[in-house]
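From the thread on structure requests for the teaching lab: each student submitted one protein with a one-line request. Submission from student K.M.:

"Model Methanogenesis marker protein 5 from Methanococcus maripaludis OS7, tokens only."
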Amino acid sequence: MKKVFIFPSNSLILADLVERFGHKPLMINNAIGDKVRNLEIDTPPLNITDEDPKKGLKYAAIEVPSGVRGRMSLIGPLIDEAEAAIVMVHAPIGFGCVGCERTNELTKYLIRRKEMPVLNIEYPENDEDAKVVVKKIALFLESLEK
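Reply posted by the TA:
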């Protein structure tokens, strides 16, 4: 079983496919869920600790907007943990957008920089394309087991 980072990082569709092939999807939803359920966090709705902004600085310089650093404090460690990645490009905003193109660009850069197997696929425009995408994902995930 490999840990597979998915992008967009909150895409439930990609997470489901990764799980169906016996791998662990790394996605921001899980990281946010852990924070929301963490009893140490006493500042709802902020749900941050003193350490979270420091974590974000590892991935984004102080000059970038705080929202980017905040998102990267969650996404960056997932990329660090990943053993592979699936990146869907040109997906519509409703497919799993994390709300910030700067974060998206930084996320894709960190994925490219890390030496791990990466599947880059285009968002399907019709049913036939969707079947091809699922097949490519299946082949990629099966190849990780070898």
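TA comment: Residues 3-144 form a domain with the Rossmann fold fold (CATH 3.40.50). The longest helix spans residues 127-144.
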